[in-house]
TrEMBL record:
Superkingdom per UniProt: Bacteria
Keyword ATP-binding: yes
Record-annotated Carboxyltransferase domain positions: 29-299
A family per Pfam: CT_A_B
The protein's name: Biotin-dependent carboxyltransferase family protein
Keyword annotations from UniProtKB, A to Z: ATP-binding, Hydrolase, Nucleotide-binding
Length: 300
């Protein structure tokens, strides 16, 4: 069925705003990263509220000061970071499902907790599909991030959601923990006992050297690990360099790497890490296979 397209106009944005869905699957053998939403839990929540397909594309926003205008009535939803939100200049207290009227303007203010906000729309944003995904990735899609005056297509919603008896409310409690659950990585056994205890027992802070490819931790973990051949890597792998730097690979990470892979974070733990700001602290904790399965199941 053909639907009429409308446009949302970006009025203001900081760096890093992009369109993301669940990413590109099965492309690693061609050197193509998975990409997709850094906080998958937030994306799935939004699409559930809007009764979209779970892979419908959303906006990922990582800076305050974003604003957008919608050409036609529709319904949107927000999740991820807790932020100050205004619609047509009026503060919104519980920005779950938000009805948008003709030429409605949404403004995103201060981030009160979390590092990434997700904005979804009924039927999803309709950017170009490249290799099975709408997710932005530099060198693959025409844009790597959105800029002022960019226009994003979406389907006109002739019956926007105006009222719900139930008031769904997004909770940020799940990502406020400092504890990051992890599996031992393929090269964890190469660490000596002292290094393992430091890796698992000591706190680490998020450094400013972080982006969608990876997140670097400030504290060093001295080690004498050998040089390794290039091996497959994917989001969630924690690599340890010869200089002692710990790097958590994220959604736009390369698909191969030569640094030892000492830990692996599952999807829920990746989402927690994605919501951490520079300077915030975390601690790794090893988990059993049974506990990890329960955590994965809790995402959906």
């Amino acid at each position: 069925m053909n639907r009429e397209l409308a446009k949302a106009s970006v009025l203001k944005t900081g760096p890093g705003t992009s369109i993301q869905d669940l990413g590109r699957q099965g492309m690693a053998n061609f050197g193509v990263p998975i990409s997709g939403a850094m906080d998958q839990r937030a994306l799935l929540w939004i699409n559930h509220l809007l009764q979209n397909d779970e892979n419908a594309a959303v906006l990922e926003i990582s800076q305050p000061g974003f604003s957008i205008r919608f050409d036609t009535p529709t319904s949107i939803a927000l999740a991820g970071a807790l932020v100050d939100v205004k619609l047509n200049g009026v503060q919104i207290q519980n920005p779950a499902i938000i009805p948008i009227h003709l030429h409605g303007v949404l403004e995103i203010g201060a981030f009160k907790s979390g590092a990434r906000l997700y904005l979804g729309i009924k039927h999803g944003f309709q950017s170009s599909v490249i290799l099975g995904s709408r997710s932005f990735y530099q060198g693959l899609t025409s844009l790597s991030q959105l800029s002022k005056e960019d226009k994003i297509p979406y389907f006109v919603d002739s019956n926007p959601i105006h009222q719900h008896n139930a008031k769904a409310k997004w909770s940020s409690d799940w990502y406020r923990t400092e504890t990051i659950l992890a599996y031992p990585g393929p090269d964890f056994s190469l660490l000596d006992t002292e290094s393992r205890e430091k890796l698992i027992g000591e706190p680490y802070r998020i450094s400013t050297f972080s982006n969608r490819m990876g997140l670097q931790l400030s504290e060093l973990l001295e080690n004498e690990l050998p040089e390794l051949p290039t091996n497959p890597v994917f989001p969630g792998m924690v690599q340890l360099t010869s200089g002692g730097k710990l790097v958590i690979l994220l959604k736009d990470a390369q698909v191969t790497g030569g640094y030892p892979r000492v830990l692996y974070l599952d999807e829920k733990s990746q989402g927690i890490v994605a919501q951490k700001k520079p300077g915030e602290q975390l601690r790794f904790s090893l988990i059993s296979s049974k506990a990890a399965k329960n955590d994965r199941d809790s995402i959906r």
